Amino acid sequence: MLDNNIRVRKLEESNFFPIPESIKLQNDSYNVYQNEEGMIIYVPKKNNPFKNSKIIEKYQGSNQKEEIGNSLIGKEL
User: I want to staple 44 with a disulfide (CB 3.0 to 4.6 A). Which of 7, 21, 27, 70 is the partner?
Assistant: First the structure.
């Protein structure tokens, strides 16, 4: 792992961290968290299929085929 020391930069009213060139971005949007020890963690945002209206619309009302050959009837949940 490379030693990528960075300093907080200020842009107008916001603070930000410059991203070293050695770090290749995998996404254009990230969630950011800070843990109990003060570490700042950036996690790439991913599409949540349970909140995606197109996926919900596509599968709404469809029955899942079970391994035993029957379909769920809606009372299992």
Answer: 27
Residue 13 φ/ψ region, left for φ over 0, alpha for ψ in the -120 to 50 degree band, beta for the rest: alpha
| Percent helix / strand / coil, the chain, rounded to 5 | 10, 25, 70
The residue length of the chain stands at 77
pLDDT average, residue stretch 26-37: 93
Query: 0.90 exceeded by the pTM?
Result: no
pLDDT at 61: 76
Pair type for strands 9-11 and 14-16: antiparallel
Q: How far apart are CA 17 and CA 7, in angstroms?
A: 7
